[in-house]
Amino acid sequence: MRAAPALALVMLAALLLVPVDDAPHQTFKQQPLPKIAPAPEFSLTSQDGGQVTLADFRGKVVAVTFIYTLCTTTCPVLTPMMSFVQDQLGSNFGTKIAFVSITVDPERDTPQVLKEYAQAFDANLAGWAFLTGTPDAIRDVTRRYGVFASKTANGDVDHTFLTSIVDPRGILRVQYVGVRFDPDELRRDLLSLLQEP
Amino acid sequence: MQSRQSRRRLLATLSSAAGVSLIGSPNVFAQQAPPETSRIRLSKSAAICVAPQYVAEDLLRAEGFTDVEYVLRPPAALAEALGRGEVDLAMHFSPPCIVAIDAGQPLTIVAGVHVGCFELFAHEGIRSIRDLKGRKVGVQGWGQAPHEFLTSMAAYVGLDPTKDIDWVLSPTVSPMELFAEHKIDAFLGTPPEPQALRARKIGHVIVNSSLDRPWSQHFCCMLTGNRDFVRKNPVATKRVLRAIIKAADLCVSDPTGVARRMLDGGFTASYDYTLQMLNEVPYNKWREYDPEDTIRFYSLRLREAGMIKSTPNKIIADAADWRFLNELKRELKS
């Protein structure tokens, strides 16, 4: 895991250098984000050992992601990308916008492990919660957010990458599939929800 | 086209679905509404390019389908199986879908999923599609996907597919084996055939639909459903499409995991060929490309070759429904 931040920086740099073609999204640029459904609630354990629910974030825009700390493939791209967006959000981060990263490997990702992971990626814990829980609780929340996660024989976790944006009223507004999305588009979407009446 | 009557029926169905208007969602097929059916039947065959379909099972279960069934049907029989309602939804090659729709099969195409399934292999002395004039080209059956793709390709470059190509019909021995034995000059391979031929260093590729225009600009496999199923189960249809799209992303982000799952699930016999295929086929074009362009393109080619009578507009009007895709384009970014 210690090598992850260095690897992540290289991968993120490569990702950010790839020209992002956002033309397909332009059609919808002027439209408000759709209102998909009430976001699935959860009650999980944070990196500090406290209970955290989605309702705790009411009034803030929340980005919910699914990761695991020993992931060596694409999580090391997603988390630094979120960290990059965190920095771009300035004073809005923590006060009006929050991130939640839920582990899909609860057996190994204890609160302490998540705390170290957060520190390794310069996560500002004032606005970013790293959550774990019982395997059943994690299975339930991944299923309800539409994330597939399956442990392999060697202990890795195959999982889909899905970043869900929840508005201040707790409504799921959009989901980003994969890790090759435009971080600036994510930032714009998050900020756009702060402008809504 | 989805008639006004069917749209009314659709809205009536939805109005009875709980929760649609709870949050004033503008969406027609609200995500929180459960699928109208807990059972979904997809297809299974030797074609491995439909990988997203094969690894979507857990995602489908997360979407509320408790009974996920893979019905064994070869690609040649898939359009009919869809039309008869033996399979509810499946990823299928675009030309056979168009030919089946023209022939009156009750199908609805809901989205394009990926491009780049096929590669045209040839022996020495053949460098382009035009060079196929007078050459022996193998197919396993008339009206099957390779024949329809090849017909479209020949028509596109100005050949008369009926007269200019010496078709070799081989129902029992695969064209790939005939090609390996130099009994034919060319054939169209779909995964895992191209990967196997490359490993055996046989022939060369004159068209790679992942890379070569215009083929690389159009969907190869499209999610297609039984018309009645789609009409009666709009929420389920949207949920299936969402699961397939997420699974397609999994093919991009975790090809090794997908190859392993396909091997474990009995969807492929070769991990290596499957992994190669996953790294070669672009599974990230579902949002970028317009599926209507694909239908227009192949309908025109097939019409030029005399394989269908309908105009592209009629095919689209009769059998395309992009509402699910359009909603998901707004709800799922990538």
List keywords for this structure.
heterodimer; A: 197 residues; alpha+beta; two-stranded antiparallel sheet; B: alpha/beta; 3-stranded antiparallel sheet; 16% strand; disordered N terminus
Please explain how this structure is put together.
The complex is a heterodimer of chains A (197) and B (334). Helices cover 36% and strands 23% of the residues of chain A. By secondary structure, chain A is of the alpha+beta class. An eight-stranded mixed beta sheet of chain A has the order 1-10-9-4-5-6-2-3, sandwiched between helices. Chain A has a two-stranded antiparallel ribbon with strand order 7-8. The longest helix of chain A has 14 residues, at 4-17. Chain A starts with a helix and ends with a helix. The model of chain A is unreliable at 14-28 (pLDDT under 50). With 334 residues, chain B is an alpha/beta fold. Chain B contains 16 helices and eleven strands. Chain B has a five-stranded mixed beta sheet, with helices on both faces. In chain B, helix 6 (145-156) crosses helix 14. Chains A and B meet through strand 1, helix 6 and strand 10 of A and helix 3, helix 11, helix 12, helix 16 and strand 11 of B. Strand 10 of chain A pairs parallel with strand 11 of chain B.
